Amino acid sequence: MKIGDIVKKTGLSAHTLRYYERIGLLPYALRDEAGQRYYDNAILPWIAFLQRLKTTGMPIRDMLRYASLRGGGAATHPERRRLLETHRQQLRAHIAELQSSLLVLDAKIAGYAGANALEE
């Protein structure tokens, strides 16, 4: 499928896909007769996984490390697992921090709601 099809299916921009290819997160795409990038459907699960990693705040350097390890096959499973476990631990800490901040905001909003009720 062409890059435009990947854009439609993933929501990533063509610029992002080309960037990911250039830095090594995506394998170099095949080219058709016109020189346009052509991707196999098998790339979609990998792109979806990269999007999850990005959404969870994984730095590009760690995504690149994971992609490099992935290229090493089954022998790299333990190291990939450690990388993901470390990221999961950081993500859980960040979620806890966000939840704590949400509680503070909720209390502040409730305080304003109470103050408005007194003013009326």
What sort of overall outline do the alpha carbons produce when their principal axes are compared? elongated
* Residue share in helix: over 70%
The topology string of helices and strands comes to HHEEHHH
Strand order of the largest sheet: 1-2
How would you explain this protein's 3D organization?
With 120 residues, the protein is mainly α. The protein is built from five helices and two strands. It has helices at residues 3-10, 14-23, 43-55, 60-70, 77-119, and strands spanning 30-31, 37-38. A two-stranded antiparallel ribbon has the order 1-2. β1 and β2 (37-38) form a beta hairpin. α4 (60-70) packs antiparallel against α5 (77-119). The longest helix is centred in the last third of the chain and has 43 residues, at 77-119. The chain is elongated.
Name some characteristics of this structure.
mainly alpha, two-stranded antiparallel sheet, 3% strand, 5 helices, 2 strands, 120 residues, single chain
Short description:
The chain is mainly alpha-helical and 120 residues long. It has helices at residues 3-10, 14-23, 43-55, 60-70, 77-119; strands at residues 30-31, 37-38.
Q: How is the topology of this model organized?
A:
Layout: H1 3-10, H2 14-23, E1 30-31, E2 37-38, H3 43-55, H4 60-70, H5 77-119
Antiparallel strand pairs: 1-2
Helix pairs in contact: 4-5
